[in-house]
Design goal:
The chain is α+β, with helices and mostly antiparallel strands. The two termini are about 30 Å apart. The protein has a single domain, classed as Beta-lactamase (3-Layer(aba) Sandwich). The protein is globular and about 55 Å long. The site of glutamic acid has 11 residues, from loops.
Length: about 325
């Protein structure tokens, strides 16, 4: 992992020029870290991504934006869709119901591991690993069509242009045997109801939504605003559910690197193997990153590098206080 060395943290969020400079440095550090990562190849369509691409979009409630690098390229949202699915599940099924089907514990295992599921506890450990996300999807599939979930994704990401990436979806479905196995295992243990093939199909479609770094910044901003679209005033999710979602992101959002990210960056975030990271920060501010060159754990190397610099220099870590 390539991280910048620590320097004195002394920049105020109230100083726009200094903040901009910190973001620029973070962006440049991230960009140069991309050369040490590798694009995901286990889904053939993902292997076509440009590993040198890097973009960072920061969006504040007052409309201030910082738009650096590759922020308009569409790429698949992948695991970041787990945040959206969880939001819909909490909104329509409620906290108690959702967390009677899935736990809220980090695993320290790979995102698609079935180890704990079969050996420790039948319910998936959390909604950010594949087993947990598939379980959450089983709560949605009887009630919600793909179009319903897409409409919510567009709203919560402040991006009406989000669409299904058909190529990624096909590639995902063709190579998704492990996810189907997870769904059938959950069904066999009677912790999941419903049709595993239909549930995984909806899961694959949600992973294949085409977003940009800006869409992810939009999602981060809505979460930072407690579930409110700050530009329309519309409440998209209740603040209590947002607190739950951000807590799960903080503890489980960066695969089996979530603990290290919590220490180094200290903000709620979620990554995807398409190279995206959504981060919700004080300000309130949403930060969206795109850098498909991944580290060995599956996180965008440029994204991690940029976020650590920015969080440290602006003292954004949730345990920074003055
Ligand atoms: N489509 C991916 C899978 O389930 C999601 C991977 C990810 O971004 O973690 O394999």
């Amino acid at each position: 992992m390539i991280y910048p060395t620590y320097e004195q943290a002394d920049i105020s969020l109230q100083d726009p020029a200094a903040v901009r400079q910190v973001f620029l440095e973070g962006y440049e550090n991230g960009l140069s870290a991309c050369q040490y990562g590798a694009v995901a190849s286990y889904i053939p369509e993902l292997a076509k991504a440009d590993g040198s691409a890097f973009g960072l979009y920061a969006w504040k409630k007052d409309g201030t934006i910082l738009d650096l690098g590759d922020t308009t390229t569409r790429f698949s949202i992948q695991s970041i869709s787990k945040v959206i699915n969880l939001a819909v599940a909490l909104k329509y099924r409620g906290f108690r119901d959702v967390f009677s089907h899935v736990l809220m514990e980090p695993t320290g295992d790979a995102f698609n591991s079935i180890l704990k599921l079969d050996m420790v506890e039948s319910r998936p450990f959390n909604p950010m690993i594949n087993a947990g996300a598939i379980q959450v999807m089983s709560l949605l599939e009887p009630e919600f069509s793909f179009e319903d979930l897409l409409a919510f994704a567009r709203e919560i990401c402040l991006d009406e242009e989000i669409r299904l990436n058909e190529e990624v979806y096909r590639s995902e479905a063709e190579t998704g045997d492990r996810n189907r196995a997870i769904a059938w295992l959950l069904k066999s243990k009677e912790v999941m109801q419903g049709n595993p093939d239909r549930i995984t199909d909806l899961y694959f479609k949600m992973c294949s939504l085409n977003v940009t770094a800006k869409s992810l910044a939009g999602l981060g901003l809505v979460l930072a605003c407690g579930g409110l679209n700050p530009f329309t005033g519309k409440h998209l999710i209740a603040p209590g559910y947002v607190r739950t979602i951000k807590s799960v992101m903080f503890t489980c959002g960066l695969y089996d690197e979530s603990g290290e990210f919590g220490v180094r960056v200290g903000l709620p975030a979620k990554s995807g193997v398409g190279g995206g990271i959504v981060c919700s920060a004080p300000g309130p501010m949403g930060i969206g990153l795109y850098g498909p060159a991944l580290d060995p754990k599956g996180n965008s190397l440029g994204g991690l590098t940029a976020l650590e610099h920015i969080s440290h220099r602006l003292k954004l870590h949730v345990f920074d206080y003055e």
